[in-house]
Amino acid sequence: MSTGSKTSDGIVETIKTVVYALLIAGVFRTVFYQPFYIPSGSMKETLLIGDFLFVNKMAYGYSKHSCPFSLCPISGRLMGSEPDRGDVVVFRHPVNGEDFIKRLIGLPGDTVQMQNGQLILNGTPVPSEKVGTFTETYAPQGPQQLTPKCANAPVGIGGTCEKEQIRETLPEGKSYTTLNVAMLNNTQQDQTPIFTVPEGHYFFIGDNRDNSRDSRVSQLADGVGMVPFENLIGRAERIVFSSGGKSLFYIWTWRANRFFKRVQ
Protein backbone atom coordinates (compact mmCIF):
# COMPACT_ATOMS: atom_id res chain seq x y z
CA MET A 1 0.00 0.00 0.00
CA SER A 2 1.35 3.44 -0.91
CA THR A 3 2.11 6.16 1.62
CA GLY A 4 -0.55 8.34 -0.02
CA SER A 5 -3.19 5.67 0.45
CA LYS A 6 -2.27 5.23 4.12
CA THR A 7 -2.51 8.98 4.65
CA SER A 8 -5.94 9.10 3.00
CA ASP A 9 -7.15 6.21 5.16
CA GLY A 10 -5.88 8.00 8.25
CA ILE A 11 -7.72 11.19 7.33
CA VAL A 12 -10.95 9.27 6.71
CA GLU A 13 -10.68 7.50 10.09
CA THR A 14 -10.04 10.82 11.83
CA ILE A 15 -13.11 12.35 10.18
CA LYS A 16 -15.20 9.33 11.18
CA THR A 17 -14.02 9.61 14.78
CA VAL A 18 -14.89 13.31 14.92
CA VAL A 19 -18.32 12.71 13.37
CA TYR A 20 -19.08 9.85 15.79
CA ALA A 21 -17.97 11.97 18.75
CA LEU A 22 -20.20 14.85 17.64
CA LEU A 23 -23.16 12.50 17.16
CA ILE A 24 -22.69 10.98 20.62
CA ALA A 25 -22.36 14.44 22.18
CA GLY A 26 -25.46 15.60 20.31
CA VAL A 27 -27.51 12.63 21.51
CA PHE A 28 -26.28 13.09 25.09
CA ARG A 29 -27.16 16.80 25.01
CA THR A 30 -30.58 16.19 23.48
CA VAL A 31 -31.68 13.18 25.53
CA PHE A 32 -29.91 13.34 28.87
CA TYR A 33 -28.15 16.49 30.09
CA GLN A 34 -27.58 19.93 28.61
CA PRO A 35 -24.92 22.36 29.83
CA PHE A 36 -26.21 25.82 30.68
CA TYR A 37 -24.36 29.04 31.49
CA ILE A 38 -25.79 31.66 33.87
CA PRO A 39 -25.43 35.05 32.11
CA SER A 40 -27.33 37.29 34.54
CA GLY A 41 -28.01 37.81 38.23
CA SER A 42 -31.75 37.06 38.19
CA MET A 43 -31.34 33.87 40.27
CA LYS A 44 -28.90 35.14 42.90
CA GLU A 45 -27.98 33.85 45.41
CA THR A 46 -29.01 30.38 44.23
CA LEU A 47 -27.15 30.88 40.95
CA LEU A 48 -24.43 33.42 40.25
CA ILE A 49 -23.25 34.97 37.00
CA GLY A 50 -20.61 32.61 35.62
CA ASP A 51 -22.06 29.36 36.98
CA PHE A 52 -21.99 26.46 34.52
CA LEU A 53 -24.53 23.77 35.32
CA PHE A 54 -26.14 20.64 33.93
CA VAL A 55 -29.85 20.54 33.12
CA ASN A 56 -31.66 17.19 33.43
CA LYS A 57 -33.67 16.87 30.20
CA MET A 58 -35.27 13.59 31.28
CA ALA A 59 -37.05 15.23 34.22
CA TYR A 60 -40.13 16.48 32.35
CA GLY A 61 -40.01 14.48 29.12
CA TYR A 62 -39.32 15.88 25.68
CA SER A 63 -40.76 18.47 23.31
CA LYS A 64 -39.58 20.18 20.14
CA HIS A 65 -37.54 22.50 22.35
CA SER A 66 -35.43 19.59 23.62
CA CYS A 67 -33.32 19.85 20.46
CA PRO A 68 -31.07 22.79 19.55
CA PHE A 69 -33.01 25.47 17.65
CA SER A 70 -36.27 23.67 18.64
CA LEU A 71 -35.81 21.19 15.81
CA CYS A 72 -37.07 18.02 17.51
CA PRO A 73 -39.90 16.53 15.37
CA ILE A 74 -42.20 16.24 18.40
CA SER A 75 -45.74 17.54 18.70
CA GLY A 76 -46.75 18.35 22.27
CA ARG A 77 -44.70 16.50 24.89
CA LEU A 78 -43.28 12.96 24.80
CA MET A 79 -43.01 10.98 28.07
CA GLY A 80 -44.09 14.14 29.89
CA SER A 81 -43.78 14.36 33.66
CA GLU A 82 -45.20 17.23 35.69
CA PRO A 83 -42.61 19.51 37.37
CA ASP A 84 -42.65 20.14 41.10
CA ARG A 85 -43.28 23.54 42.63
CA GLY A 86 -39.95 25.04 43.63
CA ASP A 87 -37.92 23.39 40.86
CA VAL A 88 -35.29 25.54 39.17
CA VAL A 89 -36.17 25.13 35.49
CA VAL A 90 -34.65 26.04 32.13
CA PHE A 91 -37.33 26.89 29.59
CA ARG A 92 -37.69 28.50 26.17
CA HIS A 93 -39.20 31.99 26.22
CA PRO A 94 -42.65 31.76 24.57
CA VAL A 95 -41.96 34.69 22.22
CA ASN A 96 -38.30 35.52 21.63
CA GLY A 97 -36.89 31.97 21.76
CA GLU A 98 -34.26 32.68 24.44
CA ASP A 99 -33.46 30.09 27.09
CA PHE A 100 -34.37 31.33 30.60
CA ILE A 101 -33.80 29.84 34.04
CA LYS A 102 -36.16 30.64 36.94
CA ARG A 103 -37.88 29.02 39.89
CA LEU A 104 -41.28 27.41 39.34
CA ILE A 105 -43.84 29.01 41.66
CA GLY A 106 -47.28 28.63 40.08
CA LEU A 107 -48.80 25.36 38.81
CA PRO A 108 -51.85 25.13 36.51
CA GLY A 109 -54.92 26.48 38.31
CA ASP A 110 -52.93 28.38 40.96
CA THR A 111 -53.31 32.06 41.73
CA VAL A 112 -50.10 34.05 42.31
CA GLN A 113 -49.65 37.61 43.56
CA MET A 114 -46.97 39.83 45.07
CA GLN A 115 -48.04 42.31 47.79
CA ASN A 116 -45.37 44.57 49.28
CA GLY A 117 -42.77 42.03 48.17
CA GLN A 118 -44.62 39.15 49.85
CA LEU A 119 -45.46 36.13 47.71
CA ILE A 120 -49.15 35.20 47.91
CA LEU A 121 -50.00 31.71 46.63
CA ASN A 122 -53.63 30.65 46.24
CA GLY A 123 -54.67 33.47 48.56
CA THR A 124 -52.24 32.52 51.34
CA PRO A 125 -48.96 34.33 52.10
CA VAL A 126 -45.98 32.03 51.63
CA PRO A 127 -44.06 31.84 54.95
CA SER A 128 -40.94 33.99 54.80
CA GLU A 129 -38.33 35.28 57.22
CA LYS A 130 -35.35 37.60 57.01
CA VAL A 131 -32.19 35.54 57.40
CA GLY A 132 -29.37 38.01 56.85
CA THR A 133 -27.62 40.15 54.27
CA PHE A 134 -26.15 38.97 50.97
CA THR A 135 -22.97 40.84 50.11
CA GLU A 136 -20.87 40.97 46.97
CA THR A 137 -18.29 43.31 45.50
CA TYR A 138 -19.74 46.03 43.33
CA ALA A 139 -17.84 45.35 40.12
CA PRO A 140 -18.53 44.22 36.54
CA GLN A 141 -19.39 40.51 36.44
CA GLY A 142 -19.15 37.92 33.67
CA PRO A 143 -18.51 38.41 29.93
CA GLN A 144 -21.30 41.02 29.74
CA GLN A 145 -19.68 42.96 32.60
CA LEU A 146 -22.98 43.49 34.40
CA THR A 147 -22.95 45.36 37.69
CA PRO A 148 -25.22 44.21 40.53
CA LYS A 149 -28.16 46.11 41.98
CA CYS A 150 -27.61 47.13 45.61
CA ALA A 151 -30.02 47.95 48.41
CA ASN A 152 -27.36 50.29 49.82
CA ALA A 153 -26.79 52.13 46.53
CA PRO A 154 -24.98 54.19 45.46
CA VAL A 155 -21.90 52.00 45.83
CA GLY A 156 -18.58 52.73 44.14
CA ILE A 157 -16.56 50.18 42.19
CA GLY A 158 -14.90 47.84 44.66
CA GLY A 159 -17.39 48.66 47.41
CA THR A 160 -19.68 46.23 49.23
CA CYS A 161 -23.06 45.72 47.59
CA GLU A 162 -25.78 44.56 49.99
CA LYS A 163 -29.17 42.88 49.56
CA GLU A 164 -31.63 41.61 52.13
CA GLN A 165 -31.88 37.80 52.31
CA ILE A 166 -35.35 36.31 52.78
CA ARG A 167 -36.03 32.59 53.12
CA GLU A 168 -39.32 31.37 51.66
CA THR A 169 -40.91 27.98 52.30
CA LEU A 170 -43.47 26.70 49.80
CA PRO A 171 -46.52 24.64 50.87
CA GLU A 172 -44.80 21.41 49.85
CA GLY A 173 -41.84 22.21 52.11
CA LYS A 174 -39.34 23.43 49.51
CA SER A 175 -37.21 26.20 51.04
CA TYR A 176 -34.84 28.64 49.33
CA THR A 177 -33.39 32.13 49.75
CA THR A 178 -34.53 35.17 47.79
CA LEU A 179 -32.92 38.62 47.61
CA ASN A 180 -34.64 41.96 48.12
CA VAL A 181 -33.09 45.12 46.68
CA ALA A 182 -35.98 47.59 46.84
CA MET A 183 -36.49 47.85 50.59
CA LEU A 184 -39.70 49.87 50.17
CA ASN A 185 -41.21 47.04 48.08
CA ASN A 186 -42.89 49.48 45.73
CA THR A 187 -41.62 48.26 42.35
CA GLN A 188 -43.82 46.83 39.60
CA GLN A 189 -42.64 43.34 40.55
CA ASP A 190 -43.32 43.84 44.28
CA GLN A 191 -46.94 44.94 43.69
CA THR A 192 -48.83 42.84 41.17
CA PRO A 193 -52.39 41.93 40.32
CA ILE A 194 -53.63 38.40 40.97
CA PHE A 195 -52.47 36.04 38.23
CA THR A 196 -54.36 32.82 37.50
CA VAL A 197 -52.18 30.16 35.87
CA PRO A 198 -53.98 28.56 32.89
CA GLU A 199 -54.07 24.82 32.29
CA GLY A 200 -50.93 23.56 30.61
CA HIS A 201 -48.90 26.60 31.75
CA TYR A 202 -46.54 27.55 34.59
CA PHE A 203 -45.59 30.69 36.51
CA PHE A 204 -41.90 31.44 37.13
CA ILE A 205 -40.13 33.99 39.36
CA GLY A 206 -36.41 34.72 39.77
CA ASP A 207 -34.90 34.44 43.25
CA ASN A 208 -33.33 37.91 42.87
CA ARG A 209 -36.78 39.43 43.11
CA ASP A 210 -36.02 43.01 42.03
CA ASN A 211 -33.72 42.06 39.17
CA SER A 212 -35.59 39.42 37.17
CA ARG A 213 -37.60 39.29 33.96
CA ASP A 214 -40.19 36.64 34.74
CA SER A 215 -43.89 35.74 34.81
CA ARG A 216 -44.78 38.79 36.89
CA VAL A 217 -44.46 40.88 33.73
CA SER A 218 -46.29 40.04 30.49
CA GLN A 219 -44.49 39.12 27.31
CA LEU A 220 -45.75 42.33 25.69
CA ALA A 221 -43.93 44.34 28.40
CA ASP A 222 -40.62 42.48 27.91
CA GLY A 223 -41.40 39.87 30.54
CA VAL A 224 -42.03 36.14 30.38
CA GLY A 225 -45.71 35.76 31.21
CA MET A 226 -47.17 32.26 31.46
CA VAL A 227 -44.93 29.50 30.11
CA PRO A 228 -46.48 26.53 28.21
CA PHE A 229 -45.55 23.02 29.36
CA GLU A 230 -43.94 22.21 26.02
CA ASN A 231 -41.47 25.08 26.51
CA LEU A 232 -39.87 23.44 29.56
CA ILE A 233 -36.42 22.10 28.68
CA GLY A 234 -35.30 20.55 31.95
CA ARG A 235 -34.51 20.83 35.65
CA ALA A 236 -31.27 22.42 36.83
CA GLU A 237 -29.37 19.75 38.76
CA ARG A 238 -25.80 20.63 39.64
CA ILE A 239 -23.24 23.41 39.15
CA VAL A 240 -20.09 21.87 37.67
CA PHE A 241 -17.94 24.99 37.30
CA SER A 242 -18.10 28.64 38.28
CA SER A 243 -16.10 31.67 37.23
CA GLY A 244 -16.84 35.25 38.24
CA GLY A 245 -14.56 36.96 35.73
CA LYS A 246 -14.87 38.27 32.20
CA SER A 247 -13.23 35.10 30.88
CA LEU A 248 -13.18 31.57 32.27
CA PHE A 249 -9.42 31.59 31.62
CA TYR A 250 -9.00 34.06 34.50
CA ILE A 251 -8.17 31.34 37.00
CA TRP A 252 -8.11 33.78 39.93
CA THR A 253 -11.86 34.38 39.44
CA TRP A 254 -12.83 30.69 39.73
CA ARG A 255 -15.19 29.87 42.60
CA ALA A 256 -13.95 26.45 43.70
CA ASN A 257 -16.50 26.33 46.54
CA ARG A 258 -19.30 26.17 43.93
CA PHE A 259 -17.87 23.29 41.88
CA PHE A 260 -20.31 20.32 41.84
CA LYS A 261 -22.76 22.17 44.09
CA ARG A 262 -26.34 20.87 43.88
CA VAL A 263 -28.97 23.38 42.74
CA GLN A 264 -31.74 23.70 45.33
Automatic annotation (TrEMBL):
Similarity comment: Belongs to the peptidase S26 family.
Main location: membrane
Claim: Signal is one of the keywords in the record: no
InterPro entries recorded: LexA/Signal_pep-like_sf (IPR036286), Pept_S26A_signal_pept_1 (IPR000223), Pept_S26A_signal_pept_1_CS (IPR019758), Pept_S26A_signal_pept_1_Lys-AS (IPR019757), Peptidase_S26 (IPR019533)
Name of the protein described by the UniProt record: Signal peptidase I
Catalyses which reaction(s): Cleavage of hydrophobic, N-terminal signal or leader sequences from secreted and periplasmic proteins
Enzyme class name: hydrolase
